[in-house]
């Protein structure tokens, strides 16, 4: 299927009516519009389409590629002056959305999964998870509406060992780096990971980073392991 995603930038101007006695006159502001990417003026091509419908001027970018990302400007001018508006077109990943059910179906582990929409290929995911500290139990519906900024994770010297892997205390954040595998050729990418050795009847929380050039951090997601 051909990629038909388009980016639309619009400059809209309105006309006003002036009433003098019993006559109505239309007052129009005539101007010329020029489009730029960074400092380069854009011409109409197969992928760059410039539409002019009355006072509405629109730039359509078809089949968006990595080289299309950048700053776009619309310059409108006439003998009375000039005005410019700028918009940044970015391939930064959107916030990841967790897809797994909040209650585990396994005995001592939880399969967590998520997707992220991104025009640029995501290079890797970094999953953070921990047991919710006692007395801090929270609700998914509340926390999901409050995305967190990236927080540095600092582990103290306390902890315990499992095989060859050193693990921090259960209430501190643990993390794992996972390579990204696109779910589709165009837009949606995702990942899943099996978290093992969970404590029974406990509430856990997780967040995930999606990295391509910059980092996008998800909201907190809560899940539970209930002992059967």
User: How much strand?
Assistant: over 45%
Indicate the overall shape.
elongated
Provide the number of structural domains: 2
- The assigned structural class equals mainly beta
Q: Overview of this structure, please?
A:
This protein is elongated. It contains one helix and 20 strands. It has one helix at 140-143; strands at 6-12, 16-20, 23-27, 32-37, 40-41, 48-53, 56-62, 70-78, 81-89, 97-98, 110-117, 124-131, 160-162, 165-167, 174-179, 181-182, 188-195, 202-211, 215-217, 221-225. It folds into two domains: 18-89, Sandwich (Immunoglobulin-like); 92-133 and 170-227, Sandwich (Immunoglobulin-like). It starts with 5 loop residues before the first strand and ends with a strand. Strands 12, 15, 18, 19 and 20 form a five-stranded antiparallel beta sheet that branches. A four-stranded antiparallel beta sheet has the order 5-4-8-9, with no helix packed on it. The protein has a four-stranded antiparallel beta sheet with strand order 10-11-17-16, with no helix packed on it. InterPro entries: Cell_Adh-Cytoskel_Orgn, Ig-like_dom, Ig-like_dom_sf, Ig-like_fold, Ig_I-set.
């Amino acid at each position: 299927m051909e990629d038909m995603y388009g980016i639309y930038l619009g400059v809209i101007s309105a006309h006003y009516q002036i009433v003098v006695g019993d006559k109505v006159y239309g007052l129009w502001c005539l101007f010329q519009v020029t489009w730029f990417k960074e400092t380069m003026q854009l011409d109409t091509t197969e992928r760059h389409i410039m539409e002019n419908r009355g006072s509405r001027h629109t730039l359509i970018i078809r089949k968006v590629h990595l080289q299309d990302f950048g700053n776009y400007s619309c310059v409108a001018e006439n003998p009375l002056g000039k005005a410019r508006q700028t918009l940044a077109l970015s391939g930064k990943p959107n916030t990841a959305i967790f897809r797994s059910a909040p209650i585990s179906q396994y005995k001592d582990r939880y399969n967590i999964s998520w997707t992220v929409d991104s025009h640029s290929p995501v290079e890797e995911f970094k999953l953070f998870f921990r047991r919710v500290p006692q007395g801090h139990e929270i609700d998914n519906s509340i926390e999901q509406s409050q995305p967190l900024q990236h927080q540095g994770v600092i582990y103290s010297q306390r902890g315990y060992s499992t095989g060859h892997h050193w693990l921090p205390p259960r209430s501190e954040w643990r993390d794992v780096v996972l390579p990204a595998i696109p779910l589709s050729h165009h837009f949606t990418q995702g990942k899943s990971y099996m978290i093992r050795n969970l404590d029974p009847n406990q509430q856990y929380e997780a967040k995930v980073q999606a990295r391509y050039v910059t980092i996008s951090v998800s909201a907190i997601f809560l899940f539970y392991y209930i002992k059967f």
